[in-house]
Write a structure and sequence with these properties.
Shape: globular
Strand content: 5-15%
Number of strands: 7
Radius of gyration: 17 Å
CATH class: Alpha Beta
Order of helices and strands: EHEHHHEEHHEHEHEHHHH
Number of helices: 12
Largest sheet: 7 strands, mixed
Number of domains: 1
CATH architecture: 3-Layer(aba) Sandwich
Strand order of the largest sheet: 3-4-2-5-1-6-7
Length: 257
């Protein structure tokens, strides 16, 4: 059965899109069929996986023009990783959806087209709590929260958890917390270690054992339009995301990848 996971954190710069791209690619490398949906108007997941940001058939056409999700899906360099691209047109989608009927359910309805075709659907949401993010949370089975190891990180997660609770109450009662992924971790910094410890104490087993380190190659990969596993498979960043994918599979499927 397809599992739909929204990656969300309204705080920008936490490694959300990096995690969406590289978790998706690493799951594909573990022989899982993955669809990555880019709901962020910045379209960084789209360009970071090697597609142009101005695709005419994009998530804008799906959400606003009634195009089927299946019809906008594009293949990538990894045979079992597909992408539903974003475009700059999505910038106006929040306003255009504002008066639409059942506006929060647009994505949920169209995702039904691909249920069964993939093992995982990953949704890269915008770093905000607008209608696009709400569409992602309404369509998802669970939420994966990338969290940077910095001073204000807990505050951002607390705000997101409040939003998730509101979505549960009114739109998606079965929405779960998939887990929290610590990103941009630098073990040379006391603050990073302290934040990681605090998060683990507060959220317990919801925090993944795998930690994503700060890594130069991980930062370079998007400018080449490649997931890190294709850009530099031996880098610490690539090793971390493969480890995260295996832990993700073990949690979701109960099997060792």
């Amino acid at each position: 059965m397809t599992r739909v996971v929204a990656l969300a954190n309204q705080k920008g710069g936490v490694g959300k899109t990096t995690t969406a791209i590289n978790l998706g690619a690493s799951l594909a490398a573990c022989e899982r069929k993955v669809l990555l949906i880019d709901l962020d108007p910045q379209a960084n997941a789209t360009s970071g996986i090697g597609l142009p940001k101005n695709e005419p058939d994009s998530m804008y056409a799906v959400l606003l023009d009634g195009m089927s999700l299946r019809s906008v899906v594009r293949s990538t360099e990894l045979p079992t990783l597909s992408l539903a691209p974003s475009s700059v047109d999505l910038v106006g989608a929040e306003l255009e959806l504002g008066g639409a009927e059942e506006r929060e359910f647009r994505l949920k309805r169209t995702i039904s087209d691909v249920i069964g075709a993939y093992d995982y659907v990953l949704i890269d949401s915008p770093p905000s709590l607008g209608l696009l993010t709400i569409n992602g949370l309404t369509a998802a089975d669970s939420v994966l929260v990338p969290m940077q190891c910095e001073y204000f990180a807990m505050e951002g997660v607390s705000q997101l958890l409040n939003t998730i609770e509101r979505v549960r109450d009114s739109l998606n009662p079965s929405l779960e917390i998939e887990g929290i992924v610590l990103t941009m971790y630098d073990d040379r910094m006391n603050l990073a270690r302290q934040v990681a410890e605090e998060v683990r104490n507060h959220f317990g087993d919801k925090v993944y054992r795998t930690v994503i380190p700060r890594n130069v190659r991980l930062g370079e990969a998007p400018s080449f339009g490649k997931p890190i596993i294709l850009y530099d498979i031996r880098s610490r960043g690539s090793e971390a995301y493969v480890s995260l994918a295996k832990e993700f599979i073990q949690r979701a499927e109960g099997v060792i990848a």
